[in-house]
Design a protein that fits this description.
heterodimer; A: about 375 residues; mainly alpha; two-stranded antiparallel sheet; about 70% helix; B: about 290 residues; about 75% helix; about 5% strand
Amino acid sequence: MLINLSIATIILYFGIKIISKGLDAVTFKVTTMDNKYKKRMKYIIVILSIIFPLVARLSPYILRTSIVALLYVVLALSLNLILGFAGQLSMGHSAFYAIGAYTTALLMVNLKLSFWLSIIASALIAGFFGLFLGIPTLRLKGDYLAITTIGFAEIVRLVLINWGELTRGPAGIPGIPSPSIFGFIIKDNVGYYYIILLLAFFTVFLSYRLLNSRYGSGFIAVRDDEIAAEAMGINSTYLKTLVFVIGAAIAGMAGGFFATFIHYVNPDNFTYSESVTMVCMVVLGGLGSIPGVISGAMVLSILPELLRGVATYRYAIYGILLILMMINRPQGMISVDRLKGGKSKNEGFGNKRINKILRRPYSSK
Amino acid sequence: MFLDQLSNGIALGSIYGLTAIGFTMVYGIIRLINFSHGDIYMMGAFFAYTGIMFFKLPLIPSFLIGMVCAALLGVLLAKLAYIPVLGAARINLFLCAVGAAIFLENFAMLLWGPETQSFPTMIENKSYTFGGLTITKLQFIIIFTSIVLILLLTYIVKRTKMGRAMRCCSQDMVAAKLMGIKTEKIVMFTFILGSTLGAAAGILVAMYYKAVYPMMGFSAGLKAFVSAVIGGIGSIPGAMAGGFIMGVAETLGAAYISSGYRDAISFIILIIILLFKPAGLFGSSVKEKV
């Protein structure tokens, strides 16, 4: 067993080295490309993702995996708003996901509301909880924020387990109906694929618009140096709360989708390891870089499926991969700085008072 | 009833405190939220279990084996996973710890199987009564062992040369290095101490609940984190106090409020304390952080 694991480690080590060289080359090619080609490539990606299920429907397994992958893309992007843009280490993202899922489930099962109304309600309620959590806790920094959000997520999970009258406790809520659109009930996974694809496009669009807006610059300023940002007249508390609410609302929508997709929710779907997975996706992909986070989410949700061949070793290898990746490629798969055409800041950057959680500190102080 | 719960809570609290100390020391030195600490605790319990079940050793040698093996594991992890990333951003270090935790959990599942194993009863069930307070022999041993280990640790940190170097590192790593302290060695040493204490706590818990299983470190790690933060992360007496607060609050809460919300109680205490005293109970008053 030890031999197998060490072989896997060695393979992964060199694999990561080679792949990261490749990724850098590709990023370089893409960023230096003409705008015309860039636009063309965007269209190709969009068209490919639209016609994909028509091919993939032959294999339900692939279709289902890609739906789950897209779901994680949405979740990871929503966390990326908080963690990558505004630099707040939120480790309790699964709480908003859970709140969204339960909202949709309860509304659709008990009140027979339509899916579209429920998913909007999910977003609103998750966003409200984001506000509720964000106002008191966002003045905490770094690790303290992380532990508070973990605590919040655990409390939400425990409430879901213990509030039997509303949530049916550990048994969960079964029989969540399928969404319908103009009278057609979406039954097969192709339909679900399009819903989640729409949600993913919406999230990507929102992320880009937000990043390039006034708010986005504010987020980046707060991430890089909160004190300097405040000195420049940025209301950092407002911005942090805002981004927290937006991230929570999107996670809530993803939760709503999850509830109808699985037709069943229970508290075990929203454990703490779910939040950790999302953080891993964001960091592994590249903090704050939208293409990076998308690919990080895809890789980390498809990888466990690919590793099914080595069934028992699956998660042990996953752990090793995480460590090796962090050692060899701390800036993530596609880092923001590379996207802008420069070297990665983590490769030798130092400033006295930068956000120490996300950037390399100059000294241990 | 109340006093029974109290002695239960104190026994549990001393275990939390022991786990939290390992956690808080590592945090003090390299500012790492060590998510693999709970899994070191689990591995320690499993090593001791192996010593008892497969090598038929008596309790005390197995206890020591568990601690030593866990310390070795801690060093190995520090060397392979944490020290290479020390220069990078802290979130990378953090994810390394997460990766190590995932790896250890699954490694334990591969080695010992995923199901819960029963830890043999090594200490006869006897209870003593002082006044109204009933305490079982096992609880007494747990509290006693924790106190001895903590005194030993305090001695190491306060009185020895190594301890002084550790305190230097926790204040400023770069300055310590400039003063000729071998910081990597200190980081290793911290991991040894932390892992040893963590393993001791794991074995005590295994004895207390008579069970070992691969996921046992998960909630223990979270609770260690919570106790460390309640007490003021980085401070040793704080971690101990945090552990006791958590243990007592949890058992009393489970007895008088609702056993379902047992874990939520500790998190609610945590959030309240963080909101009013963000540095933790002992965070600001204790200057030296280890």
